[in-house]
User: What shape does this take?
Amino acid sequence: MAEHSVIKMPLICIDASKNSMAAFEWFLENAFKEGDTIGLVHVHVPPDLPSLGLFGRFGGGLGAMELYKESLQESIDASKATIAKYKDICKNKEIKFKAFVESVDDSIGHTICKIAKENNMAFIVIGQRGLGTFRRTFFGSVSEYVLHHSHHPVIVVPLENREEKQ
Assistant: This one.
């Protein structure tokens, strides 16, 4: 009896950065095969809740909540614009895709790894932000997290020129 093979798709991590676009373009030029379906993953990171205390950043009270609601809506709109941009590119190039959009769960890297595992992706493509050693040590790196915690192969695409990273 012939076994049915599940076609695995690559998972491309997308955000509004030039690093993300560079990784996406690298994938299309070097790893994409016509007829493939690709996964696009975008993790929405909502803004931090403002301090509601008397000396908080927004001065507390209802004004702070209104500012937070506005900030949240702006971040949602920015995420939608990012997703639409990549979907349009795929549609224009006649690339089949499946979009995975999720709010951050624990961390961006953790959320990406979870989506890849739940959907049995073939591999993950992610852009490197280009943090120096000092910054990466203190702030962490999403690409580094994914590289060390994913159960799938990971391709980390760096920017070509050091000046572009800064």
Remarks:
- The first helix runs from residue 18 to 30.
- The longest strand covers residues 37-44.
- The radius of gyration is 18 Å.
